[in-house]
Design brief:
Length: 339
């Protein structure tokens, strides 16, 4: 992709960010969710094309619906009225959330990632530019087209959400003054590659990248089912176990497994399968992942660990106790300061 094309994407994002003003976030999310559910067969057929081209993974409709329900039931912070507190110095204090602006999402092409970030974008009023290498390109393109259609029906700028199938980071980072925050989502190698080059404020996530340490064969049938899902899983196996798993790394003991995982993992979710309570405790205490599982699938937690707060500016407002925040001139007392 030529540099001018990236500049056009960024410029369109800036314009969309200035013009997309709305106060019906939940209605937009509801319409988007309805469009996905009504067109789930189209998603399946498009996903099948990606699979046939060996350029994707099979989507789980249950996980899609779970994700949609999560955001349908989430209240937007950007329009919430935080409690007003009367401080000891008689100043009124409250908190206000405002949008960031243009957010660049560099990710590995995982459609679940794009889905959640779109929903977060609708909640936070941010403009999202997705950059990836074309993996799941058909399915992701359909998702973008769908949310753009919803926006246009509401007379909003469709460029609030755009995608680019290039990961040549310099083309985006050269426009760093126009990007308010960069979100990098992928495995450890992916994160480290781009975070070192990024010139904007950055947050990272290893969403949908997992680590499993096999210390016992007691649950081997269950473990094989996890492996057969062909997820982004790094597998570490105690070298004393007689088992062959493609691309697995064999380690001497629990300590070596922990060292490998903490160094190589995306630090999203790690699981140990063991019959040894001491090893389970050591794994829990020393693994640096956000989610840690014992004798269960790491995929039990499939939720993007990026929140609304991560994509909003937080302002702490303090004013003299003369006017309420609603503009009236009635002084607030300790009794009603939480109203």
């Amino acid at each position: 992709m030529e540099q001018d094309s990236v500049k056009n994407i960024i410029n369109n994002a800036i314009i969309a960010n200035r013009n997309n003003k709305y106060n019906y976030e939940k209605e937009l999310i509801s319409n988007f969710a309805r469009a996905i559910r009504e067109n789930i067969k189209l998603f399946e057929s498009t996903n099948e094309i990606d699979l046939n081209n060996k350029n994707g993974f099979k989507l789980d409709n249950n996980l899609i619906d779970k994700t949609l329900k999560k955001y349908e039931n989430t209240e937007p912070l950007i329009k919430s009225k935080d409690k007003i507190f009367l401080m000891d110095n008689q100043l009124l204090n409250s908190k206000l959330y405002t949008k960031l602006g243009v957010v660049l999402v560099m990710f590995d092409g995982n459609t679940y990632t794009m889905l959640e970030m779109i929903l977060l974008g609708l909640l936070t009023h941010n403009t999202m530019v997705f950059a990836y290498n074309g993996y799941m390109g058909g399915t992701n393109g359909l998702l973008i087209n769908m949310v753009q259609t919803i926006l246009e029906k509401e007379n909003l700028k469709k460029e609030m959400f755009q995608h680019s199938v290039t990961l040549r980071s310099n083309e985006f980072f050269d426009n760093f003054k126009s990007i308010n925050k960069t979100v990098i989502i992928g495995d450890n190698e992916f994160i480290n590659k781009y975070v070192s080059e990024c010139t904007t404020e950055t947050i990272v996530s290893g969403y949908q990248n997992y680590d499993i340490y096999i210390d016992s064969l007691k649950d081997i049938d269950f473990i094989k089912k996890i492996i057969m899902q062909k997820l982004n899983v790094n597998i570490y196996i105690n070298s004393n176990l007689k088992i062959k798993v493609e691309n697995a790394i064999f380690v001497e003991d629990i300590d070596e497994a922990i060292t490998y995982i903490n160094y190589n993992s995306s630090k999203y979710c790690s699981s140990i399968f063991t019959e040894n309570n001491d090893n389970a405790s050591k794994f829990i205490d020393n693994i640096n992942s956000k989610y840690v599982m014992v004798n269960t699938s790491p995929t039990i937690e499939q939720s993007l660990n990026i929140s609304q707060e991560d994509l909003l500016k937080e302002k702490n407002i303090m004013i003299p106790n003369i006017y309420k925040f609603d503009g009236t001139n009635i002084k607030i007392t300790k009794d009603d300061s939480s109203q």
